[in-house]
């Protein structure tokens, strides 16, 4: 059931709309980013009237965007309003079990299908990380690293499903809280994966990618539960 408009006022961080996308896409991506980055937290309401005023748009693209976010599993209807979904331990484990499988396939396909230029770009990006960098910068670096591998797999359908599986607030929020030793360990795993890709060792790359996601799950569960 769609949420009622009458609800307490909330503040959403302002951000300019992207000129080349449709209005509905702009609103959807903006709201999605606020949720994924933790700027709108679990169980917080999403009120059409407040969002419309903040973004200076009508309620129609907002309504469409909220329906898309619900289909993504990021929000749920609760007491006649939309709220950001709070995920339980079992749900997070299930999400990461899927992620382990998908990213393992992506690494395998990248070994088999990536061009030399793509492999060089992955290695070059891995080398851009400076030890001791802040966790919030590591989040951006990490997202880009894995995105490059998925692109190199040359499977658009797989890429879409992996992107969908990344749209959960706990991914980047927990990564932004990594301790220096955890960042170092994660980066070491990245370097091992780059080496496997360079050698086009598909079995090793797939195994490293699966274990990398498994380690991320362990850290998330230790932080949230």
Automatic annotation (TrEMBL):
Q: Name one Pfam family in it.
A: FCD
Q: What is this protein called?
A: GntR family transcriptional regulator
State the Gene3D superfamilies in the record: GntR ligand-binding domain-like, Winged helix-like DNA-binding domain superfamily/Winged helix DNA-binding domain
Q: Could you name the domain of life of the organism this protein comes from?
A: Bacteria
Q: Source organism lineage?
A: Bacteria, Bacillati, Actinomycetota, Actinomycetes, Micromonosporales
Q: Extract one GO molecular function annotation from the record.
A: DNA binding
According to the entry, every stretch annotated as the HTH gntR-type domain falls at 21-88
Q: Which UniProt keywords apply?
A: DNA-binding, Transcription, Transcription regulation
